[in-house]
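Milestone M4 deliverable, item 7.
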Amino acid sequence: MAKEKKFTLEGVQGELTLVYGPFKLRLFQDGREIKRSGTFKPKYYITNTSGEQEELRIQYGLDFVYMAIFRGQKIALDERLTTAEYIIGGLPILLIFLGGAIGGVFGIFGATFNYDYMRKEKRMPMQILVSLGASIVCYLAYFILAVAFQLLLKV
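Output delivered:
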């Protein structure tokens, strides 16, 4: 389920490729993997047009967009959604209030799915239908898990 995002930066040799998934983040420069340093604020040392190494940081923001921080500038690697898209796509996150941490996990997965879909599909009626469908699936999955836990605790 890994996804790939190709991009270029001014002053950097060749093309950069960010490969990301739920628990993985890798960066390639012209097909060669760049070694990551750091755990919580990962840094990559990429080759600039002069042949020197420069620091590049990759961050995942609260707006569900990867950002490249290079030479003090933040460059969004995906398009940002409109406010309406963030509200509609974020409906599963309301599970945090209903189900605490477990509800939050379901909510984050649902919102991430919605936002990824909304970046691909630009017709608002389809975005709303898919978002509502994904939200319903998240809520149902949470309630099924909650009932299963209740039944296990009674035994």
